Amino acid sequence: MQFIPVQIPAIILAAGKSERFGAPKVLQTFAGQPFLLRIVKSLRSAGIDTILLILGHNAETIISALPEAGQINILMNKQYEMGQFSSLQLGIANLPPDSSGCLLCLIDQPFLRSDTVGQLRQTGEDERDKIIIPIHQNRGGHPVYLPRNLFEPITGESSSHSLRDVLQKNQNLIIRRKVADPLIVEDIDTVADLKRLAERFNPNNS
After folding, report:
1. Residue 70: which pLDDT band, with cuts at 50, 70 and 90?
2. Which of 66, 98, 134, 151 is the most exposed, fewest CB within 10 Å of its CB?
3. Are strands 33-34 and 29-30 parallel, antiparallel or unpaired?
4. C-alpha torsion angle, residues 200, 84, 146, 161 (rounded to 10)
5. In percent, how much of the chain has pLDDT > 70?
6. 3-class DSSP state for residue 25?
7. Which of 92, 94, 84, 105 is nearest to 148 (CA)?
8. Run of H or E including 176
9. Residue 106 dihedral angles phi and psi, to the nearest 5°
10. How many angstroms separate the CA atoms of 195 and 1, rounded?
11. Which residues contact 6 (CB under 8 A, 6 or more apart)?
12. 3-state SS assignment for residue 121
């Protein structure tokens, strides 16, 4: 039997206005490091080599201020005001053609753990045609693994739809993967969230 290598890139969504936070979240720091750098490090530590960053609002200004994070592919979503789903569609449309699936990550989860990414990646390799959602104490979170067989349905949807709509239509494909990471259900919407989660964060688990 011929061995077919598994290619699982990651898409990081960072195109929104960050209105509740009051500043671009992609330029913020968490536990002494930029959000972007922390996420990229966790992805690379788990064997994710191809990373796409989706920008939108004030993209040109943000690009000039981005921290050095190694080789990542930066895409600008000119339709970012359509919502997060439009950024996901752009990312999927620009994945390497041999991708067997992808990990959907959020820029406001700088506490992303490499062991969590590794578990999702391994499950994605074992269950290539399934949607993998991490859960902790029966609550779902991110990142989410999306299989190749959903790429066309996602890109073919109206940008006014959401990932939730796609998941609702494909409940039979969902695998919920238990992880020992309580922060998968969290994200940083406000400065208060940043302070609260920074106090709760354990750097030994990153």
Report:
1. confident
2. 98
3. antiparallel
4. 130
5. 95
6. helix
7. 92
8. strand 174-178
9. -115, 140
10. 52
11. 100, 124, 125, 128
12. helix
